[in-house]
Amino acid sequence: MTPALAMGLLAIPVIVTGWYAFEGRWNRRLFHDRGGQSCRNGTAAEARDFLQAHPDAQVVDVRSSAEFRAGALPGAIHISVGDSGFAAKVGALSRSRPLLVYCAGGYRSRKAVELMKPMKFTTIQHLHRGYHSWKLSGLPVTRPVEPLPEP
């Protein structure tokens, strides 16, 4: 084993541990119930149960247009967190209907939740580990029928 490979292998656990520590602090700050607002982080199974319990939920996919076209949760609305009109588009959603927010792996959707919380949505459910966890759990996905315009 070369010294470079050995250093690389040693760095992986440090990086992974650092990410989980960062993510844990972020989660504790972001996901809680306060002031009439519920904001939770849930697994794919919990997200499925949330959608079954809230059939009127607004499912918001914050990934890129290309990712959305490749596959999405059933009934998802595409509002990319990278879109300059993100706040205005999210602002047009109902504040009283529950939201389920997701991206590919959880980072961008956490950023989106940070932007959505001050908008006073009453219920925000975040899909932990995103679309990948949903798909790996064998839950249904769809491919949007109509092409979406690029922002």
Explain what this protein looks like in three dimensions:
With 151 residues, the protein is an alpha/beta fold. It folds into two domains: 30 residues; 106 residues, Oxidized Rhodanese, domain 1. It has six helices and six strands. A six-stranded mixed β-sheet has the order 1-2-6-5-3-4.
Tertiary shape:
globular
Q: How much helix is in the residues?
A: 40-55%
- Unreliable stretches covering 5 or more consecutive residues: none
The N- and C-terminal alpha carbons lie at a distance of 47 Å
CATH fold name of the largest domain, please? Oxidized Rhodanese, domain 1
The helix/strand order is HEEHEHEHEHEH
Which architecture of the largest domain per CATH? 3-Layer(aba) Sandwich
Report the CATH C-level class of the largest domain: Alpha Beta
Topology readout:
Blueprint: H1 3-30, E1 33-34, E2 37-42, H2 44-53, E3 58-61, H3 65-70, E4 77-78, H4 86-91, E5 99-102, H5 107-116, E6 123-127, H6 130-136
What would you say about this model in short?
The protein is α/β, with parallel strands linked by helices. 44% of the residues lie in helices and 15% in strands. The protein has a six-stranded mixed sheet with strand order 1-2-6-5-3-4.
Tags for this model:
single chain, 151 residues, alpha/beta, Oxidized Rhodanese, domain 1, 2 domains, six-stranded mixed beta sheet, 44% helix, globular
